[in-house]
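Could you join me in thinking about how sequence relates to backbone shape in a protein? To get us started, please write out a protein record for me. Would you write everything just below, so we can both look at the same thing?
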Amino acid sequence: MLSGVILAGGNHGSTKGAPTLFRMIQGETLLQRQVREMRKCCGEITIVTDDPRPLLRQVDRDIRIITDYYVGKGMLGGMHAGLSLSKHRAVWIIGCHMPYPSADAAELMALRLEDGLDAVLPMIGGRLHPLHGIYERSCAVYFGQFLESGHTEADGLVRQLRYLTVAETDFGYQGMDGGFVRTLEDAWGDALTEFLADEGKASKSFK
């Protein structure tokens, strides 16, 4: 069983003036979509945000809403908070700007989180993706130390962790493509945002 963490603060708090988590995607909000997928493999779900108020009436009571301990530290601050309060050893962390999270991909990576590893991360399109990765709960200590030292660069910290990568081909062998790491702000740009808002026209390549 995993703990699920959704990062809903910082630069991902809004897209073109609309709260990202409440954007409609094929008949449901992005938040509903992410929670639905996380429930398939997570025993608990936590949303980390700098402003809990818009979320209070939008989620079930079993969804935990927390704020950063290290305020204003971006993605790392949110990851630290989510890891620190997670109940389960393996923690699946995504950003609120990711419209296609995959429980199957998360479970595959979680199976590879062996003793001695801090994380298992997807390597998609030749790039390491810290978000949609699986993290050992105890590495919250490293996040805290890194932030205390004045650093906030996610890539800098992640590369100091003991991590294993799962290649795009490995996901492909299990019938999954790498679409789960795509974001609303990636190279697909406005075309993807408009595509997602157009109900009932999802391409199989995105599912």
